Structure formats: structure tokens, C-alpha cells
Amino acid sequence: MLLDLDGQVLVVDPEGGHWVRFVVTRVSAxxxxxxxxxxxxxxxxxxxERLVGFDNAHPVGRQRRGTQQDYRHAPVKPGxxxxxxxxxxxxxxxxxxxxxxxxxxxxRERGVIP
Length: 114
What we know:
The chain is 16% helix and 30% strand. The protein contains one helix and six strands.
């Protein structure tokens, strides 16, 4: 399911310019990526800034160098720094549901959707 989304860019707010991008590739299963998928699901603002992101491309926090895991970039709120938090990957359907719920929350916060 995720692999079918690779390369897709969807405009979720044509008037305001918000869009999402999916980058998904199959990789050899490993301890870092036991599901065998390398993914990045992101929401971007009109200026291209990443507002929300779910991916598994680099270490989180103070983990030792080279250790990768699934994580999410928490939504950016005015006056707050961006934060990266571990994300527990269960399956593709849950990842997509969690991503879209976070996207909807950010778009509501920005007044894009009611």
C-alpha cells in the first residue's frame, strides 16, 4: 500500500498552497527497518516548509550514531521549536491514518479546514 504512494504529491489546500509528499522505497529488512520500507510522509506549507513529517531516515534524540528508527516531526506551533518524537510503526494502514490525522490537526490549527 505504501509503495504505491511513492512519488505522489497531493495539493491538500489549493487556495492556500499546502501540499503533502510521499517518498517510499522497499529496502532490505533490518533491525532498524524490520518492515523493509524506507518512508517519508510530509505536509508542507505554501513556502515549502515542512510542517509535519513521519519517516524513518535518521536517529532520534540522543541515540547512538547510525541507529535509525521510525519517528515523527511534531507539528510546529507558533513560539515553539520543532520536536522529533519516536513513532511506533505498526503497519501501513495505521501509519497513514496517524499521518492524515496529524495533517488534519495542523490544517485546522492554521484555519485551512474547520
